[in-house]
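Hello Y.,

Per our agreement to keep a running log of every chain we model this quarter, I'm adding this entry. I've kept the format consistent with earlier entries: sequence first, then predicted structure.
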Amino acid sequence: MLNKALFVIDTPGQVFNLKEALISYNIDEYDIIVNDCCRADAYQQLVVLLQSLSPRNLIIVPRVTGSVESRISIYAQHLPYLTHQHYQRVFFSNIRQQWQRDIVCSLPQAQATLMDDGNASLVFYYVLFSKQQFFDFPLDSDQQRAHLAAQIRSKWQVSVQQPAKLELFTLFSLPELPWLSVRQNQMSAMTKVHQNIAHDHVLILGSGFVELNYITVNNYIELLQKTQALFPGKTIIYQPHRISSVELINTIKQNTSFEVMRLEQPVEQWLFNHPTPPARVVSYISMALSTCALCFPALQVICVDPGMDAWTGALQSHVWNVTQCNNYQSIQIIMDYLKNDSSITMHAVK
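Predicted structure for the entry above:
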């Protein structure tokens, strides 16, 4: 019997996880369903990376706004096909996306397998999975809309009943639970030992925390200046986060000596292809710290820690599709993990 899988993805980084899953799980045939639902240029990067794959069937779900019916039907219409494919596994990437939840729960015969989506799987391991809960969508305060959504899901035979067990395909070191198996993602397809590195160059990966209201513009600039001071005499390349505004980038240019570089691809891909990459990769609370530390052992990966007081805006910032923690608590979980990761160097700044 062929080992068949479905991949449910919507961000460019998932392509790396998908490629690794094909190897780790010995997948013979696979379909992909993608949804244009992300911020900034993520979908455009995803489309480019998809060209390197050879799925049996690629289902593109276009971006839709408007009625509840149109937003659910745009992906649910594919369930009759998906339910007849007899997949052994369904890989997905974001427990906070309702469209992904709906597809995964509607394929109960397939083993649900969650791939890393940034640091979310790390946070939700402690906040949700440890309690045998895999999804945590807030209740819709509009009862009429919620009733309509339930009717539309019923029409398409969409289930929202979470699977009894979940597998986590992750690069994080996390213990298994009775209802949660864990398989390590070695990122072998992206691993490279660079023979030549630029010792006088530092790459800073910017955060999107100003746009998310975790930190003010002034405090973020101050943090960047303190980070710059850690590397006197070095050429510092700054890669803005993809949600960073033009205004913020211009402010950074005016207040630092950084060489600002906007990438049209994930930073891991850029580093992999670079013949002489910067010797140091620096960031704050980014999944890229963990991926770069795993994939590029010749580079020094540094987490700059300004202390939790730097992120107090996260206490009141909007929390998207999860109820059991706020963004400040999520940052604390991530920082606690990074501080215990021997492959990442910590630098405290005050």
